[in-house]
Every structure is written in C-alpha cells, then in structure tokens.
C-alpha cells in the first residue's frame, strides 16, 4: 500500500463527505423545524384601554373586561380578560385579577363585607388581594394599570 | 482487494476478524454492500446518472413530505393556515416546503429525462422489460403525486387547478361523469376532495412507490445496466 491516496480512496472519501453535507442539510433544518414551537417564546405584553377612570368608585374595586386575541400556532382565538380596578385617591390605580389562586374560580367583590369572595371553597381576600381566609396559597394576581390621556389602561399578555 | 474472512472464524488458525465482520457475520452486510456499490458497470456517461438523480429527489420528497405532515392539517379550515404557518412561523419551514415544492417539479423533469435516456439507448429491451414496466408505472405515480399534492395548499390556484384537472375526466365517454365524481368524492370540489387527495398523496401513492421502486432498483442491481449502443448495434 502506498502512502499517497489512491483515486478510488479519494473518490469514495469525497462521496462520503458530500453525502454527509447533504445529510446535514436535511437533518439540521428538520430538527429545528420539529423543535421550533417548543422554543420558549417571549410573550408580548400590551397596554389595553379599559375606559374612563371615572367609572372606578373611589374605595370600591370595580370590575372591568377587555377582549384580547391570543395566537397559538395557526389558531387565533379571542379571550376575555377581566380584572378589578381600585383606587383610594382617584390618582393611583391597582389592578387585581378576579381569578382565585386556589383552583381558578372567579372571585367577586362583596361590598358589605369589604372582601373578595370565592364561592368554590369560601375563600376570602382583602381589598389589596391578601388572603384572609380559606385555601388559596397566594394573594390575587395583580395587573399593571395606568391612566393616560384620561383613559385607563391595563398591561396584559397577548 | 485484500483477502477477507467470510463466515465464522476458524478457531485453529486464529485469524483476526476483519473490522466489519461482526455485522457481516450476522447480516451478510458486506455482500449486500458489494452487490450494490462495487458491481461492474459498462463504460457509461453522465446521462446514466439521471436514475440516481431521480432517486435522490424521491428521497428528498419523502423526507420533506414527512416533515410537512408534522404541521399540515388537511381540512378546509386549517389547510391554508397551516401552510402559511409552516412558511412564515417555523424555523426552516420555508426551506422544508420549498424543497418539497421545487423537488416535485424537479422530479417530473428528471423522470422524463431518465425515461428518454432509456428510450434513446434502447435500454428497455430484453432482459430489462420488467424494469421498464415498473418504471412506466413509477412515472404515472409521479404524475399522480404531482396532481394530488397540488391541491393540498388549498389556495385559489390549488382549488381551480384541481377543478379544471378533474373535469378532464368528464370527457371520458359513457362513464366520465362517474369518474369525475370518484375523483372529487362528490359533485363539487369540497372538504371530501381535500381529505381524499391528502390520503392518496401521503399513504397510497408512497406505499405503491416504495414497492415498485424496490422492484425497479433490485432489477437494476440484479441484471446490471446496459452499455450505450454501438454504431452497428
């Protein structure tokens, strides 16, 4: 056997190399294509108008609803986001989710008792979302709310 | 070629097993490899690569086609949206669909050139008639692939091309009307047509193609290829 590479050996190696490149040309895009939707994509956040801040009674949480479009894959569906907005001074607003942190039931504001009440397991939350009784593991989720140009806006994931 | 040990190793001689012997001993892989890749062929030219080129594109169609079905949904509500999703939202989706789309066109061109080479060289003659006949059916399968695949994006072009294409069946005497209804799965192009074309395109045609391709390639290897004809042949 000589040290120099024979024609046969060269050609068979070249064929293998080209074949490997072609194989990678299929395999790499294929893996990215199949795994693509699994990437943790950054969810976009958006300020959505809720209406006039005058609708919020000072000292009383008021329920607001807004519709957003959520896209997963090629399917776009409308979701409703509802939240309680509340203010003590008519200047600074807080947004509280009306979804109970226990099992996801809807809580409602009971004005007489100054409390959020969840009918599923009789849980109660204070005006600022703290758990006051019942099984919920954490306070109600909050939304960022702002007033701009005389409009109330909420920051939601879309 | 160096001598190589075949079969079980003789314990008395203590011969070193060749590197591929484990697999070869159990599968005969060496012999298969040699039969396919180290067979003798006559002196040929580049036109003789058209069959291999066709095979390469067929492999490409299978790979990219399987990948497309990962996301494609053959319903009238989803077909167009899923194709758009593949094209614009998935990493390399445009490449996968592009390879399948252009591969189909390349395949039609290649099988025709491959067939012309066989005709001009008279390579369909004895003893290669069965290879030729399977090739003819493979050509028809390729056209069927192209026709059924054209509908699947479910856009305007797909819809009207298939409307016109299926209507050709209507001119067949006596039972043309029936053939048209069979092709469309009803009077008009509908969700049924889309679903049927999808099923034919991804299950029936590939199964038939794999079967015939296996026979076709087996015969090419078994009989060997013909030399280009000489002046006084």
Report on the architecture of this protein:
The complex is a heterodimer of chains A (158) and B (233). Chain A is α+β, with helices and mostly antiparallel strands. Chain A contains 1 helix and 11 strands. The mean pLDDT of chain A is 89. Chain B is mainly α and 233 residues long. Chain B has 9 helices and no strands. Chain B is globular. Chain B starts with 20 loop residues before the first helix and ends in a 10-residue tail after the last helix. The mean pLDDT of chain B is 92. At the A-B interface, helix 1 of A face helix 3, helix 4 and helix 5 of B.
List the keywords.
heterodimer, A: 158 residues, alpha+beta, four-stranded antiparallel sheet, B: 233 residues, mainly alpha, 9 helices, 0% strand, globular
Q: Tell me the strand percentage band of chain A.
A: 35-45%
Mean pLDDT of chain B: 92
Low-confidence runs of at least 5 consecutive residues of chain B: none
Q: Using only CA atoms, what is the Rg of chain A?
A: 29 Å
Sequence of secondary-structure elements of chain B: HHHHHHHHH
Helicity range of chain A? 10-25%
Give the termini distance of chain B in whole angstroms. Answer: 35 Å
The biggest sheet of chain A amounts to: 4 strands, antiparallel
Task: Please compute the radius of gyration of chain B using only Cα atoms.
Answer: 23 Å
Mean of residue pLDDT values of chain A = 89
Report how far the terminal alpha carbons of chain A are from each other: 69 Å
Gross morphology of chain B is: globular
SSE order of chain A, one letter for each helix or strand: HEEEEEEEEEEE
Strand order of the largest sheet of chain A: 2-3-4-9
Number of strands of chain A: 11
Which structural category fits the helices and strands of chain B?
A: mainly alpha
Layout of secondary structure:
The complex is a heterodimer of chains A (158) and B (233).
Chain A: H1 7-35, E1 45-51, E2 62-72, E3 75-87, E4 93-97, E5 108-110, E6 115-118, E7 123-125, E8 131-133, E9 142-143, E10 145-148, E11 151-157
Antiparallel strand pairs in A: 1-11, 2-3, 3-4, 4-9, 5-6, 6-7, 7-8, 10-11
Chain B: H1 21-27, H2 29-37, H3 50-71, H4 79-88, H5 93-121, H6 129-151, H7 156-167, H8 176-184, H9 191-223
Helix pairs in contact in B: 3-5, 4-5, 5-6, 6-7, 6-9
């Amino acid at each position: 056997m000589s040290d120099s590479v024979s024609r046969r050996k060269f050609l068979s190696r070249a064929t293998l190399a080209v074949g490997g490149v072609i194989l990678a040309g299929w395999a790499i895009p294929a893996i990215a294509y199949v795994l693509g939707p699994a990437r943790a994509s950054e969810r976009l956040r958006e300020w959505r108008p809720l209406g006039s801040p005058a609708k919020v009674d000072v000292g009383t949480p008021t329920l607001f609803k807004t519709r957003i479009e959520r896209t997963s894959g090629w399917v776009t569906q409308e979701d409703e986001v509802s939240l309680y907005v509340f203010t003590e001074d008519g200047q600074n607003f807080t947004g509280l989710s009306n979804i109970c942190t226990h099992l996801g039931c809807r809580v409602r504001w009971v004005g007489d008792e100054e409390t959020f009440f969840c009918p599923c397991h009789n849980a109660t939350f204070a005006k600022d979302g703290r758990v006051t009784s019942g099984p919920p593991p954490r306070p109600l989720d909050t939304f960022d709310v702002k007033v701009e140009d005389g409009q109330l806006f909420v920051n939601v994931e879309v | 070629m160096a001598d190589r040990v075949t079969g079980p190793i003789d314990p008395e001689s203590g011969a070193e097993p060749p590197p591929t012997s484990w697999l070869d001993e159990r599968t005969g892989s060496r012999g298969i490899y040699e039969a396919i890749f180290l067979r003798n062929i006559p002196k040929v030219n580049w036109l003789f690569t058209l069959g291999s080129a066709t095979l390469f594109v067929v492999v490409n169609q299978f790979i990219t086609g399987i990948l497309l079905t990962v996301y494609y949904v053959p319903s009238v509500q989803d077909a167009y949206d899923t194709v758009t999703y593949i094209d614009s939202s998935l990493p390399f989706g445009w490449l996968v669909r592009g390879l399948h789309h252009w591969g189909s066109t390349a395949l039609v061109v290649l099988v025709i050139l491959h067939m012309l080479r066989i005709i001009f060289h008279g390579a369909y003659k004895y003893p290669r008639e069965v290879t030729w006949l399977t090739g003819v059916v493979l050509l028809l399968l390729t056209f069927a692939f192209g026709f059924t695949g054209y509908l699947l994006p479910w856009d305007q072009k797909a819809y009207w091309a298939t409307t016109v294409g299926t209507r050709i069946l209507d001119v067949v005497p006596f039972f043309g009307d029936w053939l048209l209804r069979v092709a469309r799965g009803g009077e008009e192009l509908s969700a049924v047509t889309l679903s049927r074309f999808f099923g034919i395109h991804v299950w029936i045609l590939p199964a038939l193609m794999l079967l015939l391709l296996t026979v076709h390639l087996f015969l090419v290897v078994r009989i060997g290829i013909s030399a280009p004809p000489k002046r006084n042949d």
